[in-house]
Structure formats: structure tokens, C-alpha cells
């Protein structure tokens, strides 16, 4: 059966924690879906994991569209999120044009990084039948503002700003939030405050779902291994059992454990 955004709302309501993964091609998408991953993301992390750049800023909309159509063919029934890459949604008009490209490539939702400034764009996209997933906390497209990839929301002001951004995105019509690298307690407040599902990465086991970059899960990331990442292949016989282990540990709350969580 097709996984839809309604399933994610239901999972949130019933406290059924779900596991999501990035995927960029047909074969991995098919394998992930067949092992039980129902939510996939064609992330602009592909700029680093597939293309070898130092950041996500070099990714183009045509790259996302190309990988989205491949992933869609591999997992026709998954709920498929696709990133709008750097500068492709800097104005509402650009967002419309580029959202159309990735939706026609097979995405179910587009993911945009940023807070309150995106509300107008989110409202307009939603009104035009393009569901939006917000992305808050560590937003890698802002690396040149942030200076380095680090935990966000550590002080009172930045924590309050993240909470108000999350509420603003939901009010504007966002259907889902990815929350990246924020302390456990703040992630808990945001997850329980919002009625839309929150998918965490580097937020502890308090969010409604978890997402990992597939290369982190398989332990093939290279030098920069984020603290929240876990190599599930290490104690598994093969990729399929690593995926099943990831799903089990997310559902039981075993992953992310304290060692993968920021306080
Ligand atoms: O681009 C990506 O893969 C992402 C995940 C880290 C959530 O945004």
C-alpha cells in the first residue's frame, strides 16, 4: 500500500516511531523499501555522499530530479521527500518552478531549509498542492553563515527561536519537519508542541521518526562521521539485516542512545 503523509500523522498519534533513510538510486531505494523503510529522502547530502563536494551548496535541481526519478522507480510505494537545493527556493517563484520539477520526477513532498522567512513560500506551495517538509536546527545549506556543522539551539534565545520557527512553519502549512542536531530536551519540546510529525537526526529518541544518511548507516561516510551516526552494518551480516536492525532500534527507542544524543 502507498505510504502517505496521513500514515505519518497516524504514527505520531499512536506513538509508533518510524525509521526513514536517504536514498539516491533505484537499487538501494528498492532494497530499503523491501526491508521496511517506508519514508525515503533524496537529500542534497548527495552533493557530499555521491558527488564528493565539501558541502551541499553545489547541488542543482537537475541532480535532485535525476535521483528522485530513480528512487521513485525503486520504491513506487514509499513516501518520497526531495530536497530543494541551495538557492532553488530563494524566492517563491523559484520555489514553484523547482518544486514542479521534483514533484514531476516523483516526489511527494519538497523539503526546504529555514525558519519563519519561508512561511510565505510554504503557504503558497501548499495552496498549489505541493506539500512541504520544513528543515530546522542544523541547516547545512547555511554552512557559510553557521561557520561549522554544530548543534543548534544550545542557548535560551536560539532555543526559543527554533520553537517559534517550528510553530510558524506548521501554521504556514508545513506537513512535516526534519529537525537536525538540537539538544534532546529542545527536540522533545518541539516534537510535543507540534501536531505535525517531526523526523529527527541528531536529536535523540524523542522525535516521532528518525532519519539517517544511508552512507552513515552503512559506515562508509569517510572522515567526518557525525556523533549521532551509527554504523548498523558493523554487527550485521549484510545490508538487508543492517536496515532491519536500524528499523527495530528506532521502533524500540534503542537508537539513538545517549551516546548518539546531544544534551
Ligand atoms: O540532505 C539530507 O540528506 C538531509 C538529511 C540529513 C536529513 O537533509
Protein architecture, described:
The chain is α/β, with parallel strands linked by helices and 263 residues long. It has 11 helices and 8 strands. 41% of the residues lie in helices and 14% in strands. The model has no long low-confidence stretch (mean pLDDT 97). The longest helix has 17 residues, at 156-172. 3-methyl-2-oxobutanoic acid is lined by residues 22, 41, 43-45, 83, 178, 201, 211, 213. Its cofactor is Mg(2+). It catalyses: (6R)-5,10-methylene-5,6,7,8-tetrahydrofolate + 3-methyl-2-oxobutanoate + H2O = 2-dehydropantoate + (6S)-5,6,7,8-tetrahydrofolate. It is found in: Cytoplasm. 3-methyl-2-oxobutanoate binds at residues 44-45, 83, 111.
